[in-house]
Amino acid sequence: MSHEHPLYLAAVRKHLAGDVAGAEVDYRALLAEQPTHAPGQHYLGFLLQQAGRLEEAEACLLQALQLDARHAEWHFNLGIVLARRQRTDAAIDAFCQALALDPAPYFYWTNLGAAFEANQEWLRAEQCYHKAAQLDPACPDAFYLLSALLLKLERYDDARHFNHRGILADPGKAAVPIMRAQAWHALGDPAAAIAVLQQWQRDQPDNVEAAHLLVAYQGEAAPEQCSETYVEHVFDAFADTFDSILTRLDYSGPRLVADYLGRVQSRFAHALDLGCGTGLVGQAIRPWADELVGVDLSQRMLQHAAQRGIYQSLHHAELGAFLQADTAPHDLICCMDTFTYIGQIEPVLALIHARLQPGGLLLCSTERLDEAGAHYRLNTSGRYSHSPAWIAAILREHGFVIAEIADTVIRKEAGYPLPGQFIAARRPA
Questions:
Q1: What single DSSP character describes residue 224?
Q2: 252: which residues sit within 8 A by CB, 6+ positions away?
Q3: 296-335, pLDDT tens digit by residue?
Q4: Percentage of residues in the chain having pLDDT higher than 70
Q5: Cα–Cα distances in angstroms (integers) from residue 262 to residues 257, 284, 285, 286, 404, in the given order
Q6: How far apart are the C-alpha atoms of 255 and 124, rounded to whole Å?
Q7: What is the residue-wise DSSP string for 304-366?
Q8: What is the mean pLDDT of residues 283-291?
Q9: CB 386, CB 220: distance < 8 Å
Q10: How is residue 189 annotated by DSSP?
Q11: Rounded to whole angstroms, how far apart are CA atoms 379 and 362?
Q12: 302: nearest Cα among 315, 291, 289
């Protein structure tokens, strides 16, 4: 029977136009008249797959392949159905049949790789993703799949590499200057990264992010801390999504504070949350504090913090300026994920020591810098990391007694653990 049967042509037209119900009626009418019409069986199966009717789809696709097994696409579509039905071994067989007929489509390889990954056949999955990336280097899918697999296998450097390659191939993400610059830099082309930021600055001369990041990327002498306009701009921009973003990044600040205070089992009359953001850490402090005060540079962050109802007062201020003007006594000061925006933290630590009551407790976190001879560094993330040895030395110099310094994962970035430190120090009684 010719493939140009009127019912077949009508069904395909309706299918392409999105008239799923009408197309199904015509496919079934065709097959009632001509049950050996292989394309009709296949496209009815494909339609049922699209509709999520997987058992019916599998039956139609198997029937089509029994009639005519020469089409790679038909085997591939059967593989998709089988994979969705979690019949992984059968899906692998179907994808392999498709590739034996046509090894060129990159997405045949990514789907085969995903099936191998579902079977925990890590090496075969990785090989398939590599093949897909070779076939279409401009498509980000294979790079992202490789990155996710290697992240699962804790091969972090390789995972970062392929994530960055995916970003450069991804039209959406590559349009974001920060992401594109970070990707070029991580892939060993700092000149390309700098060019991206310079173009961004030419396009937006008043953009504080571009100016700030150029300092880090060009290796210029880093300022002692991020400018107030930069910090306020960045945090105002994502205040509305801050909590959900930090949840996705497995931000550990609230847990670290809650765990430590739970172990100490002390109450605090006056607690100060410096760089309080939306109040995530404040929630961990609140059960242990009679009075809790929050300080932040971002007014929009403070608006979210106010909605939690856990602070007696909130102050829109740079933390150094606040500490200089502050005269209230504090027996707990928290500075979690805040020193990452200050390089030279000695002046702030001196002010914190002065504002703590005798016996008062400081809790803070830093991103870890393992670079001989360096006290702090402005990274291409726009944040500072600090030398653990230097932090410990200046805490002691400014009169603190260190209760705990613990290596920890501060958060994840694109799934990768970011090494840092959690620090607890006291002003002697």
A1: S
A2: 408, 409, 410, 411
A3: 999 999 999 999 999 999 999 999 999 999 888 899 999 9
A4: 99
A5: 8, 10, 10, 12, 14
A6: 38
A7: HHHHHT--SEEEES-HHHHHHH----EEEEEETTTGGGBS--HHHHHHHHHHEEEEEEEEEEE
A8: 97
A9: no
A10: -
A11: 25
A12: 315
Confidence tier at 3 by pLDDT (50, 70, 90): low
- In the Cβ-directed half-sphere of 278, how many Cα atoms lie within 13 Å? 15
pLDDT of 2 above 60: no
End-to-end CA distance of the chain: 95
* CA dist., res. 387 & res. 366, Å (int): 9
Q: Which residues in 75-232 belong to E strands, given as ranges?
A: none
pLDDT at 175: 87
* Tens of pLDDT, residues 208-252: 999 999 999 998 888 999 999 999 999 998 889 988 888 888 899
Could you write out the three-class secondary structure of 225-241? ECCHHHHHHHHHHCHHH
Rounded to two decimals, the pTM is 0.83
**Distance separating alpha carbons of residues 376 and 342, to the nearest angstrom:** 9
> What does the DSSP 8-state code read for residue 368?
B
SS3 content of the chain, % helix, strand, coil (to 5): 60, 15, 25
pLDDT the model gives residue 53? 96
CA distance 7 to 16: 14
Q: Is the dihedral of CA 403, 404, 405, 410 positive or negative?
A: negative
**Has residue 1 got a pLDDT over 60?**
no
Average pLDDT, the chain: 94
176-198 per-residue burial string, b: 16 or more CB within 10 A, e: under 16: ebbbbbbbbbbbeebeebbebbb
Q: Which two tokens stand for residue 60?
A: 């139609």
Q: Give the residue carrying structure tokens 């008249």.
A: 33
Q: What is the mean pLDDT of residues 112-140?
A: 97
